[in-house]
User: What shape does this take?
Amino acid sequence: MTAEVLDIQDLDGVGPVTANKLREAGYDSISSLAIAPIRELVEKAGLETSVAHKISKAARETIQTDFVTAKQLWERRKTLLRLSFGSSNLNTLLGGGLETQAITEFVGEFGAGKSQISMKLSIQTQLSAAEGGLEGKVLFIDTEGTFAAQRVFQMAQASGQDADKILDGIIYSRVYNSDHQILTVDHAFKICKEENIKLLVVDSILSHFRGEYIGRESLSERQQRLNSHLHKLLRIAQALNLAVVVTNQVQANPQAFFGDPMRPAGGNIMAHASTHRIMLKKSSQGLRVAKVIDSPYLPESETYFRITEKGVEDAVPRNKRDE
Ligand code: GTP
Ligand code: MG
Assistant: This one.
């Protein structure tokens, strides 16, 4: 029997009472238990540490995650999917499209195009593989209330897609504070699995955290909670082979003597958790520049795009047209 058909109550050490506690904390499958940190099982489900250890071990043994060979790692990497942006410039910048099993962060000042790209990707995800899509649905977590269904409708219609069907394929959640945001992601594994979610968006990842934790004394608590939140997102991406997109703002870096005085908010925690970081900037002639600023294997290159009726499209700045 595989982990898919087993219930969490089938694990050694999980009776009805513990199963209830786990479900209430959002752990409703063996795979969600296998990837949860022990500390989290203790804190969120109120388990004894020794019990949490035992359950975690049983879950991992059931789905056999502990040791893999490099060959298996390579096989897993080959299952990685790529989502087309509908712009070949952006696809090329990202090494062939947005990756599953990773967190891609779009960072930039207001109006740079972070939300527009997130909405465009929410459409692209639902297209067939032949069209560069992932043939799945989208979970869109909106922290600022800027998701616009009418804009998604317009993009889909202008691109010749069935706009009503596209809107049906986006599961939307407006979150009002960082606790709510964390709780939503804690419970996302189940819905992502059941609804065949292939893209999970958090737009924007830090706004609540930044608004709620003010002053130096609360910074380390904020960073700890943010870290565990981001790791949860990454584990969902890896366990379910889906893409995660988070957006982030820039903030002034008072220590910058050289180069760009603006840097992504969220410090080292944010920098380490994002697999790929893409900086978006407004440019002249209404164009936008997208630049890889941090990635384990993408080169640090940049490209141009435009925000249009269809969403995002390739662009070439006037002075580069004849190159
Ligand atoms: P913040 O959330 O404020 O940090 O910014 P953001 O990076 O999310 O910006 P967003 O993606 O919302 O981009 C807003 C910009 O997109 C606007 O300034 C417009 O230039 C452009 N835009 C928005 N809607 C449309 C549209 O319907 N058509 C076109 N052509 N452009 C649009
Ligand atoms: Mg936005």
Observations:
- The pocket of magnesium ion (ligand 2) is lined by residues 114-115, 146, 203 (CB under 6 Å).
